[in-house]
Amino acid sequence: MKRRAEDDLGGWLQGMGRKPLVLRGARQVGKTWLSREIMKNFTNPIYLNYDYLEDREIIKTASWLPDTDLVVLDEIHKMDGWKNHLKGIFDNKHDELKILQMDTQKQRGEINPSGIATITATEIRQARSEVSHIYMDEMLERYIVTLVNASRDPEPWWPEAKPWINYGASPRATLALGHCARALAYLRQRDFVEPADIIDLAYEALNHRIGLSFAARAEGITAKHFIDGLIERVPVP
What we know:
- There is one protein chain.
- By secondary structure, the chain is mainly α.
- The chain has 2 domains: 2-107, no CATH class; 121-233, Magnesium chelatase subunit I, C-Terminal domain (Helicase, Ruva Protein, domain 3, Orthogonal Bundle).
- It is built from 10 helices and 4 strands; from the N terminus they run H-H-E-H-E-H-H-H-E-H-H-E-H-H.
- It has helices at 2-14, 31-39, 53-61, 82-107, 121-132, 138-152, 171-187, 195-206, 214-218, 223-233, and strands spanning 45-49, 70-74, 165-167, 211-212.
- The strands form 2 sheets. It has a two-stranded parallel sheet with strand order 1-2. It has a two-stranded antiparallel ribbon with strand order 3-4.
- Helix 5 (121-132) packs across helix 7 (171-187), helix 6 (138-152) crosses helix 7 and helix 7 packs across helix 8 (195-206).
């Protein structure tokens, strides 16, 4: 019997990703002594007895030190739902350990856990330089300016919309829409901007820069409705 216990413990000690070990038996057969012998194989073990109030709180909250590599829980069977409690501790601690180990490997550049291709700072700077050289015809530049101006004063294009606006987009929106249109053309593998690049990004560039009036909200008008209306009415080159 002793030989079998030693063999079982030897296999458990050598196992990778060990699962919790439960020692069962009659009272006074040496379970606690055996547990303390097992502790000698670890660097930072801890012994906790559920009969002790101080230890009980530590067990309930799993608040032993993070570098603890073995936790011996004596008299744990006296705790209601002890099996589920232990399973929850094991699963959570195991997941946190995997996260920590993966983060360390990621910092070293050993793995890319997301599986998504990464890009270097040099590649980003190169892409920004290439985007800045994407051609935009002056007619499209004027279209952007007209569209942004229309968000401030829609009356020439859409008289009914004038009461809906408290304030429209500033010249910063003009710059943002120009930059974004060039970037989108670049992502679409073109070296020039098309009207569709501007139109597709108009909502993203203008939405948060437009303040609708109470009258607009009362009529159920949203920023998207307003921007879509401008795009329909301002002539596209």
